[in-house]
Amino acid sequence: MTDKIKPLAVKLCSPLVTVAIGDPALVHAWEHVQKNNGRPGVDGISVAHFAKKLFYHLGQLRLQVQTGSYVPGARREGIISSDDGKPPRRYSVINMRDRILQTAVADVLRPLIEPTFHEGSFAYRPGRSTRMAIAAIADLHSDGYRWVIHADIEDFFGAIDWPLMLGKLKEACRDEGIVALVSAWLQAPVQQADKTLTPNERGLPQGSPLSPLLSNLYLNELDRRLEGQGRRIIRYADDFLVLCRDQEGLEDAHALTENELAQLKLRLNPDKTRLTSFDEGFVFLGMHFDGDSMTPHKPDTGTCLIPAPVAAFKVDAGRVAPTPHASAIVSHRQAPALPEAPQHPPETLVPDGHEAEVVTDTPHLRTLYLLTPGLLLGRSNDRLTVSSKGIALQDIPVQTIDQVMALGSCTLTSPSLTLCAEQGVGLHIVDVRNKVVASLANAAADAVSLRRCQYQASFDAAICLQLAKSIINAKINNSRHVIARYLRHHLATNGEEGLLQLNALQKSARHAATLDELRGYEGASARVYFSLMRKILPVEWTFGARISHPPVDPVNALLSYGYAVLYGNGATLIQRRGLDPAFAFLHALKEGHLALASDFIEPYRAPIVDAVVLSLIFRHRIRPDDFVSDEDEALPCLMSTGTKRILIHALEEKFNSMPANLHQDYRRLMAQDVAQLARFLEGQVTVWEPLSL
Asked: How far apart are alpha carbons 353 and 372 in whole angstroms?
């Protein structure tokens, strides 16, 4: 029936089309289509049939596009019924060659368009998920956004206006060939059950490889116009929330939403749109938000999403578990029963004698720690597996963790590394000297513009000095805050004098004229700070000076180990935001060093790591004899696995706690600082001030 469709009759030799029909792009697109193994389209050609003469078919497809004889095929539509009361959803099945070419075009367009999308958009985007959208809602709730418009766009995919859509695409890619191809695909008719062809006039076909990207492009301006003036938006496809700080702004936000949708020739679905609040309760993305709690809307059926507990929310006792299932996408027909919330640190995930733990009670960066030498991290489909000496110990859904910290002499397989990279899971390797020696970094192709700004700023002396001053000011302030608290209870010779010195050095650092001068003040403040720490420690704890790699005494070992964990957390947050962790403003570029991670964690060293170490020492949870002295000068002080475990749990508790007078836990504050740094680099704000207690 495709002979009724006119060919393009134009040679599509534009730059982006040329890339899309090149061998690498077409072969990559074919591999993606083959992996999905979709059903045949109107022409009856299946994946297996296409594969028999793969390179002939790809060559013919390229030639037709180049000569203008390419004819988009008709598509066949089907209907997916719903058993939850929702109206049936239409989907389209397109021909194999159209599917491959559309996939190739989507691959070419994505790096150009994705960076322009609003941060509140979560559907159909690489590295984003419903879990992240729910976490973002939790963040906004804790930040005071309590009033909500729960909006749904009526017949969104079917109502999209073609001229508006193509105009937005042309503006985004500036490639006439791509626009001509997309226009032809939009106009492809629909084959009915009796084989007749029905013309199409509007809408995006659901099931097309391009439709998700184009749908986000169509609504991107809506996302940006609804953001600001006390409003925030979280959107997942055509279902979205507009969140407001007060009820007064809710009506205005509703009117603005209707007006902006009208500009797009869309309208709200009145049956699914309501003005509400967290106190009144609402359901979004399968989660029931009610007051300060959130639980799965239908925990007994289907796939359920149970996010990790968030500090600003009260999570029902029956929804917390010391296993990955407490915070995972549970792919079971029936969700597993979950035990009551533990009153102790999470249990080990593997039998006694092996240390591999998932900490699930954190709002950000749930972490898999590999502690015991000899553990093997592997992959089974979408799960990470932990084994030892050929014995399987645990398999963990990759969706349940955000980062892996390999803290012992472990083996990491290529498939496990690939899975972590595909899912955006941070991975950091710590050697026996308690130093992070390697980190898995994603390409972050969707953050090209942000990284360009970062690189430019890292070579601008004035900007580097400005940011470095902010870092050092916060670091000295927080260090003084922590040590002053302990000085109130533990007498130290010249303690008050040391605090005054820190005050003076902080003031001097604010007026430093160069980075070298600033680093001098930072070094002097560190010496004063650690001298005060040395004076308050019990006599049995030897701490001559801060020596990091290798640590020469138990205190240095604890600090270095804690700093390695903190450094890994900082690097993961930086990478997830799209920044390059190697290019910094205070620390100099150095091979094998994520300098921006070192920059970023400076203000957090004292309030997180140092505070934990001092607490463990003064509460006698660890003792000097928990460490082993080694005659090997390269490793003079070794920490036992049990001590490492105690330290990790204490650090996780600290990450999950909120500083006094603040309403977010430390990991949220860290994530907030990274986001604010990105806004500074993009020119959205003029000042960046990291956490200052």
From this structure: 8
pLDDT of residue 562: 92
Residue 394, beta-bridge partner list: 386
668 Cα distance to chain centroid: 13
**How far apart are the C-alpha atoms of 303 and 324, rounded to whole Å?**
15
Matching residue, tokens 């020739």: 265
Residue 300: closest CA among 337, 339, 335, 340: 335
Question: pTM (2 decimals)?
Answer: 0.51
Q: Please give the single-letter amino acid code of residue 213.
A: L
State pLDDT tens for residues 31-46. Answer: 888 888 888 888 888 8
- Residue matched to tokens 């490492």: 644
Q: How confident is the model at residue 489 (pLDDT cuts 50, 70, 90)?
A: confident
Look at the chain and count its residues: 693
Strand ranges of the sheet holding 89-93, from the earlier edge strand across to the other edge: 89-93, 75-80, 190-191, 197-198
The single-letter code of the amino acid at 10 is V
**What is the per-residue DSSP string for 539-559?**
TTS---S---SS--SHHHHHH
- Spatial contact of 134 and 74, defined as CB atoms under 8 Å apart: no
Q: Are 287 and 309 in contact (CB under 8 A)?
A: no
Which residues, other chains included, contact 383 with Cβ-Cβ below 8 Å and sequence gap of 6+?
395, 396, 397, 398
* Helix-helix angle 96-113:162-173, to 10 degrees: 60
**Bridge partners, residue 288, by sequence:** 283, 295
Strand, helix or coil at 478? helix
- Residue 679's Cβ-count burial label (10 Å; 0-12, 13-18, 19+) is middle
pLDDT in tens, 569-583: 998 899 888 898 889
Chain segment 319-348, per-residue pLDDT in tens? 222 222 222 222 222 222 222 223 333 322
DSSP-based three-state secondary structure for 662: coil
CA distances from 425 to 115, 128, 147, 518, 613 (A): 20, 12, 33, 35, 27
Helices (H), strands (E): how many in the chain?
21, 24
